[in-house]
Specification:
Blueprint: H1 6-17, E1 20-24, E2 27-30, H2 33-40, E3 51-52, H3 71-81, H4 87-111, H5 121-138, H6 144-147, H7 151-170, H8 179-186, H9 189-210, H10 221-224, H11 234-265, H12 267-280, H13 289-292, H14 296-308, E4 318-319, E5 325-327, E6 330-332, E7 337-338
Antiparallel strand pairs: 1-2, 3-4, 4-7, 5-6
Keywords: Heme, Iron, Metal-binding
Family: Belongs to the cytochrome P450 family.
Pfam family, one: p450
Length: 346
């Protein structure tokens, strides 16, 4: 688990012991479909809801964000963000996204010398997703496609490493409450400073976007147009933007990398996908978001990529309410933490 392969260890435990496994003190892992409904579905009363595990969802020092926020905070953030993720906004954002995709394709062609030199596609997928999410979140890219890995991208990698160790230490009795301090002592100083640097750079980018008085189809546009007291506080802009950058870049790059790997491992499936794309469009200009959304095999490839290379393999743990609850037909006492590992889910 310490090496970053927590999902493999949990998968092996479920293979050996079945659909319910105790993976740490006070932690039960469930993988059956009914368990997911019991854990994550809305309940009739607030008292029956399984809250987000407070030990897993570490609060951002600036303000809560859409992932860590409680029920009311999450609902408000989602309501304010939803226009930026609507179909209408996606159509308005398409030229911006397509611009980065074009740079991405040209960059790969240049890097591989027209097919003569191997390239690291994981790295290139991170470059393009990081630049796209940077523009949509802050109004400007990070320049990865033009300059390669930036200091900010390296800081995000450091944060991922720190979070991985933090999650493991959290589960150790007596040490869990000191997880943050222990991780800070064990990791290199550069890794510890990664989160601080991420917040500092986020503040600079958000400040520029707030002062940029030009309408553009990004995630911040609707929020900035809200009357005073109705939108985000500046702290909420910082925490949510920092979360969007981390969640919107690396996760998409993981899916794309996994899907490409699987396609290369199965040439017949690659051919079927290429055939669907080439027979569906007469030109590159026809390959729009709306048109590609109608391709069943492309959708199947992405769905299978999400299943086999889930960007969020540990799941998002909840905590059983005080009175206990029934999960997948089994009674679970209150206070128990119940993650739903996406890699192993049935």
């Amino acid at each position: 688990m310490w090496t970053g392969y927590h999902h493999r260890a949990v998968h092996e435990l479920h293979e050996r012991y079945g659909p319910v496994v105790r993976i740490a003190p006070n932690n039960l892992s469930f993988i059956n479909p009914q368990a997911w409904k019991d854990i994550y579905a809305h309940k009739k009363t607030r008292e029956q809801e399984m809250i987000k595990d407070p030990e897993f969802y570490v609060r951002n020092p600036d303000a809560p964000h859409i992932v860590s926020g409680n029920h009311e905070e999450h609902a408000r953030y989602r309501r304010l963000y939803s226009p930026g993720f609507s179909l209408r906004s996606l159509r308005e954002q398409e030229p911006l996204i397509q611009g980065y995709v074009n740079i991405f394709i040209k960059g790969i062609s240049r890097a591989c010398e027209n097919g003569e030199t191997p390239v690291d596609m994981v790295q290139w997928f991170n470059f393009v997703t990081f630049d796209i999410i940077g523009d949509l979140a802050f109004g400007e890219p990070f320049g990865c496609l033009e300059k390669g890995a930036t200091d900010w991208l390296l800081k995000l990698n450091q944060i991922e490493e720190a979070q991985m160790h933090f999650r493991v230490i959290q589960h150790i009795p007596l040490l869990g409450r000191y997880a943050r301090e222990i991780v800070n002592l064990m990791l290199p100083s550069d890794a510890v400073k990664g989160a601080e640097g991420h917040r500092k750079l986020t503040r600079e980018k958000v400040t520029r976007r707030v002062n940029y008085n030009v309408s553009r189809p990004d995630f911040m546009e609707h929020i900035l147009r809200q009357p005073e007291g109705k939108g985000f506080t500046f702290g909420e802009m910082l925490s949510n933007s920092a979360t969007l950058i981390q969640a919107g870049s690396e996760t998409t790059a993981t899916l794309l990398s996994g899907a490409l790997f699987l396609l290369l491992q199965h040439p017949d499936k690659m051919k079927k996908l290429v055939d669907e794309l080439t027979t569906s469009f007469s030109s590159d200009e026809m390959m729009t978001i709306e048109n590609t959304d109608r391709l069943p095999y492309l959708a199947a490839v992405l769905e299978e990529g999400l299943r086999l290379y889930s960007p969020a393999v540990p799941g998002f743990p909840r905590q059983v309410p005080k009175g206990g609850a029934t999960i997948d037909g089994k009674y679970v006492p209150g206070g128990v933490r119940v993650p739903g590992p996406t890699k192993t889910a049935r």
